[in-house]
Amino acid sequence: MKEITQYIKECGCFFLGTVNGDQPEVRPIGVLQEYDGKLYTAVGKHKNVYKQIQANPKVVLCAMGKGGTWVRVRATAVDAPQEIVDKVFADNPFLNTLYNEETGNKLGVLELTNGEVEFCGMGGPDRTEKL
What distance lies between CA 99 and its chain's CA centroid? Predict the structure, then answer.
């Protein structure tokens, strides 16, 4: 799991894909954490992305690294317990300015589970692992 997290973080930006009705939606995301061998991301609960995940929890993360390599994570996103939410805030202090009582915005921290990771080159998947 650490290899996946490190690779994606080194990319700087990664993209989260969801389903909006019968259409795909993709947007850049900046939070990715690994705790105890589990992968987590975070989105605002007031945003459409969170509503889309609640309606259909199947998601995909994608990031491109150096030299044309890239990674894709297909998973089911489920709400994380409060202890993980607290860890995400502690490890990403900038989130406190966006998600607080003053703004009224709440952060949805999501565990990515029951999925697979594909490490790819320009020719397609080189290696696939269970999440």
Answer: 17
- Read off the CATH number of the domain in which 98 is found: 2.30.110.10
Helices (H), the chain: 2-11, 48-55, 82-91, 95-98
In this prediction, residue 67 carries a pLDDT of: 82
Is the pLDDT at 16 greater than 90? The verdict is yes
Q: Which two three-digit tokens encode residue 8?
A: 């994606």
Pair 40, 112: CB distance under 8 Å = yes
Q: How many CA atoms lie within 13 A of 43 on its CB side?
A: 25
As a whole number of angstroms, the distance between CA 105 and CA 10 comes to 28
Count Cβ atoms within 10 A of the Cβ of residue 38 and give its class: 0-12 exposed, 13-18 middle, 19 or more buried: middle
* Number of structural domains in the chain: 1
The domain of 37 spans: 2-130
Q: Give 68-116 pLDDT, tens digit per residue.
A: 899 999 999 999 999 999 999 999 999 999 999 999 999 999 999 999 9
Closest CA to 60 of 69, 49, 68, 51: 49
Tokens standing for residue 116? 């697979």
